[in-house]
Amino acid sequence: MGSCNEFYSAKEFHLDPKFRVDPRHLFVGPKIGEGAHGKVYEGKYKNQSVAIKIVHRGETPEEIIDTEARFAREVAMMSRVKHKNLVKFIGVCREPVMVIVTELLAGGTLRKYLLQLRPRCLDMRVAVGFALDIARAMECLHSHGIIHRDLKPENLILTADHKTVKLADFGLAREESLTEMMTAETGTYRWMAPELYSTVTLRQGEKKHYNHKVDAYSYAIVLWELLHNKKPFGNMSNIQAAYAAAFNNVRPSVENLPEDLALILTSCWTEDPNARPDFDQIIHMLLRYLSCHMPPEPMIPSHVFTSENAVLPPESPGTSSLMAVQDDLEETPKGMMETKSRGLFFCFRQCF
């Protein structure tokens, strides 16, 4: 799709007044993330803890036009979808800087959580539970005709209790009806579907047609990580992983995995996009796996104790022990406690 401003220009940008954020009530705290087009901060809005994404407009007129169009597209999509596994959209302001405000999730990214857990793996029930959360978020997006295009652990955020995963960052999302001339090379190479690559080179800017099935491929790579807690494609660079997947049909190993889960992976990352399942099918397969191999454990009545130090089963088997490990590993980010909230205008001057 040539330029995204063909579909969302600044003049066409209309937003429900309830989503308009008053920058006078927006206060910015420590930085918690950074991407190609902006930085994300912890902050406050009207005494509510929030995540604040400040978008960098760019330097040249062309960059500014494209950034404003991308911003309008992201806001338009976030404001119209709502699901318990999607980060909640709170509002936006465009001046003095472009800002997107969402709920703040204290659990950090799935990437950070997995790295802190290594070399240990997630409990299987926890891993499948997270996989279900992600699949349900993706099913919601696809039901609204939206392709995320950048599904990866960095864009998956955990709640404070580490029991729920929510999908974030619509910066690269697109409406599927607009993909006929969509730019390829979109997303992060290690997780990108092979059909996004040129058959000659990974030259940025090539136009290709693809559909929502690119998200199924990315989902399979994320699921493989959840099950193994290892980097997919081993020690290959991102570019090497892209070439291996696109031109040699290389995929991570599914050895030693339960047959049902291996089938989900291989069907989601198959080379033919049309053969990949939709997310409602993926959800059904995951639920069937849970019901067949991990039936609910019987609950012990609260008044029954076998010893003074008896431990009752956690709400989600395996989760409590993982949370204990996580608590031991987590450290307060440097400067988090002493950093005071600052006004939006101050932060903008400091950061850009």
Automatic annotation (TrEMBL):
Query: Transmembrane segments in this chain: where?
Result: none
Sequence ranges assigned to domain Protein kinase in this UniProt record? 26-287
Q: Which GO terms describe its molecular function?
A: ATP binding; protein serine/threonine kinase activity
**Keywords, A to Z?**
ATP-binding, Kinase, Nucleotide-binding, Serine/threonine-protein kinase, Transferase
Pfam families on file:
PK_Tyr_Ser-Thr
Check the record and name the InterPro entries matching this protein.
Answer: Kinase-like_dom_sf, Prot_kinase_dom, Protein_kinase_ATP_BS, Ser-Thr/Tyr_kinase_cat_dom, Ser/Thr_kinase_AS, Ser/Thr_Kinases-Pseudokinases
Question: SMART domains attached here?
Answer: S_TKc
What highest taxon heads this organism's lineage? Eukaryota
CDD domains, per the entry: STKc_MAP3K-like
Q: Where does ATP bind?
A: 53
- UniProt similarity note: Belongs to the protein kinase superfamily.
Annotated protein name in UniProt: Protein kinase domain-containing protein
